[in-house]
Amino acid sequence: MPETPTELADEVREQVKDRKSYLGVIDRLNKASVDKHWEAYADIPWDDPEFQVDKNDPRWVLPPFDRLGETEWYRSRPPEVQAQIGLWRVATAMKIGLQFENLLKRGLLNYAYRLPNGRPEFRYVYHETTEECHHGMMFQEFVNRTKMPIRGMPRSLSLIAQAAPWIPLINTEMFFVFVLGGEDPIDYVQRKSLKGGHIKHPLEETIMKIHIAEEARHISFARHYLKHRVPGMHPLRRRILGIATPVVLGVMARIMLSPPGPMVRHFGIPKDVVRAAYKSEAARAEISNSVGKIRDLMAELGVIGPVGRQVWKAFGIWDEPKARRAVQTSKAA
Hints:
Organism: Actinomadura graeca
Distance between the termini: 12 Å
Structural class: mainly alpha
Pfam family, one: AurF
Protein name: Diiron oxygenase
InterPro entries: AurF/CmlI (IPR025859), RNR-like (IPR012348)
């Protein structure tokens, strides 16, 4: 008989109650950070002629899965304008990435500040913070070389986001949901871009491969932390987490995947073109897919209640969790 979603969730809780396994994950992540890591100015050949950034380079043209690239308006632009729009998109993603990682580093250090002596999380947090520092340097160096007026997050949101580093002092579980909300959507897009062969410029490809490799460790730590901690949370705090999670994810996924306002204004992209490209059913599905792994994790941990499910739907990022879809498929068969 197929397992029910409740049985699958119970199995997850049993697995993560084993503190020895949780500590084993941290030991492996610590070792991996020592064995294989990259430095922004030692491992990227910035001065290689092949790595130079030319805003008119046709290799920056938007990939097929970027909905703007499918519009008649975009295809009718001169080749150099198509390239500049594509480069602006890449550079904005990197600028938002480094801004998010700035908040993340400050939050991680606030979390580590209060850890007792002997906690293995301390060492891992410092490994991750070091890696994120190099990510920030390589992202900013890339942005600088475009010579474009890239801003990143909208100013109003950037101001509100300054509260994020203080979340660990109140609720560490919510902070690591915030971590996944910033890392999973961009990881989803980057993996899809590489797998589809859409990355043509060697500098972008090198930066992306470094980022994916190290972010895999960061995502793993956040997921295992939540698996270890959430089952033991007070029921009220779990309910709050279940309702707050889709709010965080709904906002952050859209920041990562939606077109930056300055780019729309700079290139005079008509509003109806933006609406057709980024407010279509396909675009909404892409945003929902980008948070699919976190949604499945929250379902496994049993924090998605009836109210929380409605919040997921309100933000347009709901889909049946993987475990429930598997059960439904088995029953249908």
